[in-house]
Amino acid sequence: MQSSSAAARIASRRSHRKSRSGCANCKRRRIKCDEKKPACTNCIRHSIRCDFLQGTASSSAPSTTPGASQSQTTPTTLITPPTIPPSLSSPPSPTLNIADLELLHNYCTSTAQTMSPLPALRSLYRINVPEIGFAFPFVMHGILAMSAIHLSHFKPARADYYRAQAFAHHDLGLREASALLQTNITEQNCHALYIFTIFMCIFTLGKGPKPGEFLLFSDKGIAEWLVLFRGIRSIIEMAPDSIKNGPLGPMFSSAVRRLQMQHGADLPENENITHLRAFIHDTTPAPLRPTYLTALNDLSRSLAWVTSSPAPAYESQSTFRWLYCVDNEFVALLQQRKPEALAIFAHFCVLLKQLDSAWWMRGWMCHLIAGIYYALDEEFRALIRWPMEEIGWLPA
């Protein structure tokens, strides 16, 4: 009778399949590991660190700037679920991906609020963009990548974990979007590709400065970020009406209103821009002079508007407009390290400083002005004295 009862108890025990390649936590608890990356489902469900994260997280830590403004919304924290004993737990059907839900929750409640100080655009990022993500998985991957890289800035103890998730979603989204960008931009998907490309530009900034990469020029040929940013313009040129009249329309109506206000304003030019213009007139070969002056004149208007505008400081549309409009000839001269082009770009960094309170711009201003300074011959470094003072950077 006793042997029959013991056999019944043994038979009632739930069986499990051993995994030779599962994570250490699942092996220790003797439960099946689904071996998902960057962290298995069991570790995510119980809020413990999965050893699959080792080797998948980027070795580069996010750049931080001491004293950077914390005015943006702080990422939210999910309540840690109670641990369920393995003997009582059973896999739900279908399985919820708790890690992705955490990222989506953080995006909707926090990250979206940091994308713009304008209420209409905050609502667009919080409501319209996730709706696009439900229809286009690569956009959802972009959303989750943005949220994860955002969390990595504000939860340093788990930065490796969030960066691993960020890069995983970034790669998945980029793989699908790249195929469409090369062969199949349509009226139906152009708005999704447009917002995804914006996310990839901000994501690259949010990773932090990379040695040798300076947004518009690089030590290794064409700058990585410039390729992404030029992609935004290419998509608009392919289907302008469909994008501007679609779910992202508020972005463009807001930009048009601000541009009209900028052109209607009679603002004095910064005297440092005036001095740089005189230098270009006096020293630059005549064939190159129009390229430099066009870029400088456009920058002068943008700088006068942004620095005198009562609008919130980190309104990125006005700040990035100069980069959007600058022509390829100027970029080519910048990549050749021409001193006039480098000096103009240094003055743009003063404009870019208006975004200093945005988490995804941390560390970039000092990185850029340092790159420009060391790219200039010593005789031309006086041209960027004012930008250096405004940014607060001095050579070591």
TrEMBL record:
Q: Which residue ranges does the record annotate as region Disordered?
A: 1-21, 59-92
**Which ranges carry the Zn(2)-C6 fungal-type domain?**
22-52
Q: Which CDD domains match?
A: GAL4 (cd00067)
Q: Which GO terms describe its molecular function?
A: DNA-binding transcription factor activity, RNA polymerase II-specific; zinc ion binding
Q: Which of UniProt's keywords are assigned here?
A: Nucleus
Which classification does the entry list for the species?
Eukaryota, Fungi, Dikarya, Ascomycota, Pezizomycotina
Q: Which Pfam families match?
A: Fungal_trans_2 (PF11951), Zn_clus (PF00172)
- SUPFAM superfamilies given in the database record: Zn2/Cys6 DNA-binding domain
Which organism does this sequence originate in? Aplosporella prunicola CBS 121167
Where composition is biased (Low complexity), the residues are 1-10, 59-81
Where do Basic residues bias regions lie? 11-21
Compositionally biased region (Pro residues)? 82-92
InterPro entries (UniProt xref): Fun_TF, Zn2-C6_fun-type_DNA-bd_sf, Zn2-C6_fungal_TF, Zn2Cys6_DnaBD
* Name used for this protein in its record: Zn(2)-C6 fungal-type domain-containing protein
